[in-house]
Amino acid sequence: MTVPDTPLLAGLELGGTKTLAVLARGTQIIDRYRIPTDSPDIVLPAVDAWFAEAAARHGAPQALGIASFGPLALDPRAPDHGCLTATPKPGWAGTALLHRFADSLGVPARLDTDVNGAALAEQRWGAAQGAAVVVYLTIGTGVGAGVVIDGRPVHGHAHPEFGHVRLRRVAGDSFAGICPWHGDCLEGLVSGPALAARAGMAGTAITADHPVWDAVAADLGEAMAILILTMAPERILIGGGVGMGQPQLLPRIAAATADRLAGYCPEAVARLENGLICAPALGDDAGPMGAIALAMDALAMDALA
């Protein structure tokens, strides 16, 4: 719900394939701009220009939230705080985000991972409302997991990199994985590019009954069991192009998770039967709304300063 005096907030979602800039009042996005995530010397000036144009239409925003692919330097004590670090995305390593946009817009700003932002948005306004411990897993170009506990995204010296955990493999599955660092980590096994390599065809051509989904459900069941045993989440949301594009996977993942738990954590098994693992309620807007949630937090912190 919005009213005219609700603060105008800016959000920027930087994804592996697309970048989305938005303006919002309350929880209503009132303007948006989308551009492919090309090189930073193309994307960042284009976003600057759009924010200037949007401000001319709607007024200047009061705060900014940035939800970005990573890895990110999120420790305020780090010399590269607010920057992308060793990302495999060509040209983006070392790119300054937080201070660059905070200075250009002249507003308080907060930066976090795209998946932490999405988890925060789903906890506030989506499928994880009322849950104290929330995990948002995105499966697309890569695999990432955001964790929110009691309304705060989790990170310490760095942020979680759950996409690179190693899994017990199903007997007979010899796919080597595509991760350049780990081969058959979670990202190397179930990301969009990994699925294309496994199936030998473009991801969009893989039908819902293709046998590759058997391996994907098994691998994700192993990953979900790890999350349940380590984080005890009250809600696990699976988003991203693969996650939301294959709804038939969710019950199979839940069944595979229960199988991996092997009778342990009966309460978790009961929760699996009642939607512990589910799709994001905010759909494709979980990412930009995550950026808006970060902007709200930046504005609140600025008011306390």
Structural descriptors:
305 residues; alpha/beta; Nucleotidyltransferase, domain 5; five-stranded mixed β-sheet; 10 helices; 19% strand
Care to describe what's here?
A hairpin with a 3-residue loop joins β1 (8-14) and β2 (18-25). The protein has two domains: 8-113, Nucleotidyltransferase, domain 5; 127-280, 2-Layer Sandwich (Nucleotidyltransferase, domain 5). α3 packs across α10 and α6 (212-231) crosses α8 (249-261). It has 305 residues and is of the alpha/beta class. It has helices at residues 40-58, 98-105, 114-125, 186-190, 192-199, 212-231, 240-245, 249-261, 266-272, 286-304; strands at residues 8-14, 18-25, 28-36, 63-68, 109-113, 133-139, 143-149, 152-153, 235-239, 277-278. The mean pLDDT is 93. 38% of the residues lie in helices and 19% in strands. It has ten helices and ten strands. The strands form two sheets. Strands 3-2-1-4-5 form a five-stranded mixed β-sheet. The radius of gyration is 19 Å and the shape is globular.
Shape: globular
Helix content: 25-40%
CATH arch. level architecture of the largest domain: 2-Layer Sandwich
Amino-to-carboxy terminus distance: 27 Å
CATH homologous superfamily classification of the largest domain: ATPase, nucleotide binding domain
Mean pLDDT across all amino acids: 93
Number of strands: 10
How would you write the strand order of the largest sheet?
3-2-1-4-5
Low-confidence stretches: none
CATH topology of the largest domain: Nucleotidyltransferase, domain 5
